[in-house]
Amino acid sequence: SDAPRLRELAATVAQAQVAYADAIKDGARVFVSTSAGNDSYPVLTFVGAGCVLRKPVDVHTHYHGFGSVVADRLSDPGRLQMRMREVQEAHPQVVFVLPECRNAPLLGADDTPSYRTNWDNVSDEVATTSAALAAAGADDVASRTVSFYSGGGRALARLQELHPDGSGLAANRLELIDCLYNGYHDAIAAYAQTANGKAVGR
Length: 202
Hints:
By secondary structure, this protein is of the alpha/beta class.
């Protein structure tokens, strides 16, 4: 049954309406969609008020760590939303794509409850990002950044497990933030030897 996925989707939409309310009021756009590459769990796309989607965009896909969700509020101690806004203020054409893990809390709060993310829903970052951009109406990509924070490193490891040839992850730039533990460093070392890994500029 798709009922659990529908509950996840509805919960993420409800959380996003609250978490991003002031940004939306100021002209930002928030899209919540799904992708087979994320096992149909929610993917939130955050487009800043200054972004012109008919022009080339710089997409930044981010896999969050423990204790976070894609609809964390601005006041959340993880500062994810605050950081995204800072980046978009300096670079308006940056669009953020935020895949959700499979066990994110369904109820929003000022501070997301502490929990350990389960990223076993991840199978294809390329498909996930493409679907999210299509949902937002962006079809011209200038550059791709993919980042993994803390427990989000499991998503990187899983992508490499499922796609030993590196085809499940494509980026011009990778950001590896406190995530090279639990063997995840082996995954990035293996990815670095693939064609997509060698194509990463930074």
